[in-house]
Design a protein that fits this description.
Helices cover 25% and strands 31% of the residues. The protein contains seven helices and 21 strands. By secondary structure, the chain is of the alpha/beta class. The protein folds into two domains: 181 residues, FAD/NAD(P)-binding domain (3-Layer(bba) Sandwich), CATH 3.50.50.60; 122 residues, FAD/NAD(P)-binding domain, CATH 3.50.50.60. Strands 1, 2, 5, 6, 7, 8 and 21 form a seven-stranded mixed β-sheet that branches. Strand 15 and strand 16 form a beta hairpin.
Amino acid sequence: MPKEKHTRLLIIGSGPAGYTAGVYASRAMLDPILIQGIQPGGQLTITTEVENWPGEKEIQGPDLMVNMEAHAKSVGTDIIFDHIDQIDLSKRPFLATGQSGDRYIADAVVLATGAQAKWLGLESEDKFKGFGVSACATCDGFFYKGENVVVIGGGNTAVEEALFLTNFASKVTLIHRRDELRSEKILQDRLFKNPKIETLWFHEVDEILGDDDPLGVTGLNVKNVKTNKISHLSCKGVFVAIGHAPENSLIKGQLETHMGGYVVTNANSTATSIPGVFVAGDLTDYIYRQAVTSAGMGCMAALEAEKFLAEKT
């Protein structure tokens, strides 16, 4: 039977922002409930080596999130595996409904739903998703041992995916529509030194090609953005790494957004236009988008929620 639970602070999302908010809210004796969502741990669970987390020279992304979850739980955060389908922010207390059917009534809310992978928007991409087209090299790279694969993008994610795939693939082609990468220089240096990786500049994907029975990728057509000339590449896997979009479907029409869907906050704050609603991490951060800044914003959100609730009490 569906249950109804009341909490002073409801945290939606379980990445660095959500778990850090849980730690600080628990230490403030707010007895927070944290809803993990469909991907507990967020984007870091599909990341391999994390080399820029303070205090860790190198740690696996999933291990970092396991540690953060355990920390939040140890100080008293009530962590629930559910996914919030809808939330009503029109009046306090706020009402959120989970896929489980459970209803969560909250005096304040921290939104930390993060971001999701962007796609190219091609019909052929949709056709082969899960059958040769992926947005997660750490999830699917193992299936391409000894094969040729392609990575699309030019930022940190694309370079990290390309480097990781060299553990399995015989050749990795990085396709970028410019002639300069946006990734960190240390990652670029590793990429250019890796003999398994070839970079194809000034190109974009025109169509992904493959078989129907069984369904699977065999190659793709790429277009030179300067000459519009179409050429063909043979490959078994296509990894799309062109960035992420904020996961704002829950609050569309309720909170103000900008810059392509990121939630607007007050200056130097995580507070939104609705009193009692705070936002942290990639749902609002369109500049830095780092695990450490997400964690910092989770701390800010919890402290601001504590102050808000104290004033209301």
